[in-house]
Amino acid sequence: MSLEKLTEGVRAKVADGGIEESVKFDLGETGIIYLQGSKVSNEDQEADCTIKMSAEDLDDLLSGDLNPTAAFMGGKMQVEGDMSVAMKLGSIV
Questions:
Q1: Are strands 32-36 and 39-41 parallel, antiparallel or unpaired?
Q2: Mean residue pLDDT across the chain
Q3: Spatial distance between the Cα atoms of 89 and 93, rounded to a whole number of angstroms
Q4: Is the pLDDT of residue 19 over 90?
Q5: How far apart are CA 8 and CA 20, in angstroms?
Q6: What SS3 state is found at 86?
Q7: 7 near 32, Cβ under 8 Å?
Q8: Closest to 39 (Cα-Cα) out of 10, 65, 71
Q9: pLDDT at site 17
Q10: Mean pLDDT over residues 55-61, rounded?
Q11: Which of 78, 36, 80 is nearest to 57 (CA)?
């Protein structure tokens, strides 16, 4: 899955409004997806919460094939920063 397609997937999820806090998805060598509210970019900015995961796992998360809690508990997702922000993402992914 390309960074562009993943970015569009995140953008579609937050089109009707995201969360106020900022979140950065760190996809390793694939790149960065930064979101705040309904704004989504590939800029590497400081964020309230950083979620590290593979591009494949993010694709599965966006498509509904991977449960966010299961991803975290199974080690497929690491959260740095404000954990309450990560919890809010459950309402949009």
A1: antiparallel
A2: 92
A3: 6
A4: no
A5: 19
A6: helix
A7: no
A8: 10
A9: 78
A10: 96
A11: 78
